[in-house]
Amino acid sequence: MAGDRQPRLLTHPDLGDVELTTVLFALSDPSRLALVRELAAEGPRTVEECRGSEPDVPKSTFSHHLRTLREAGLVTNEPLGRRRVVALRREELEGRFPGLLDAVLGH
Amino acid sequence: MAGDRQPRLLTHPDLGDVELTTVLFALSDPSRLALVRELAAEGPRTVEECRGSEPDVPKSTFSHHLRTLREAGLVTNEPLGRRRVVALRREELEGRFPGLLDAVLGH
């Protein structure tokens, strides 16, 4: 039954292993940058809430965007009950790439 | 005759028209990022000098990288006699995207 499904645990890279170019690429798409801005401004959001902010993006594309951000170390995507919560890894990113996120979010 | 060729004038975007995502994409390739770092550290260089720093990159790929950087407003590419000189648009970039280049070059 759907209600018995275990939430899927996704992998998150150690930021020490993430290259700057990977982060820059993840931020170079307007939809992904908008999502990062939203998470920075409003804090963690459920996947459904994130999705609601990009209603014109096809669901498969949206999932791809979330995955690209997660694999670049920009966001976590963790189960919370039956929902999933997406959060910006802001402090970790600041430690790995000082000033980068602030410079990007400032524009 | 080759010696009589007029140097080709390339177009350069007004930085006010350049989107942040375009700049981030241009910087998201390791070869392009290395070239930007080199121009930041050493000042303007001829195309041949730039090319010499990336000997393993095919010439057509290198030309594509230079074009991507120019169209993103990151570099100028201007004739100087029979040579061409590539320069980072550092002050202009700082005006348009404060802190971004320093944050990227710091890593």
UniProtKB/TrEMBL annotation, chains A, B:
<dbReference type="Pfam" id="PF12840">
    <property type="entry name" value="HTH_20"/>
</dbReference>
<dbReference type="InterPro" id="IPR051081">
    <property type="entry name" value="HTH_MetalResp_TranReg"/>
</dbReference>
<feature type="domain" description="HTH arsR-type">
    <location>
        <begin position="12"/>
        <end position="107"/>
    </location>
</feature>
<keyword id="KW-0805">Transcription regulation</keyword>
<dbReference type="InterPro" id="IPR036388">
    <property type="entry name" value="WH-like_DNA-bd_sf"/>
</dbReference>
<keyword id="KW-0238">DNA-binding</keyword>
<keyword id="KW-0804">Transcription</keyword>
<protein>
    <submittedName>
        <fullName>Helix-turn-helix transcriptional regulator</fullName>
    </submittedName>
</protein>
<dbReference type="GO" id="GO:0003700">
    <property type="term" value="F:DNA-binding transcription factor activity"/>
</dbReference>
<dbReference type="GO" id="GO:0003677">
    <property type="term" value="F:DNA binding"/>
</dbReference>
<dbReference type="InterPro" id="IPR001845">
    <property type="entry name" value="HTH_ArsR_DNA-bd_dom"/>
</dbReference>
<dbReference type="InterPro" id="IPR011991">
    <property type="entry name" value="ArsR-like_HTH"/>
</dbReference>
<dbReference type="InterPro" id="IPR036390">
    <property type="entry name" value="WH_DNA-bd_sf"/>
</dbReference>
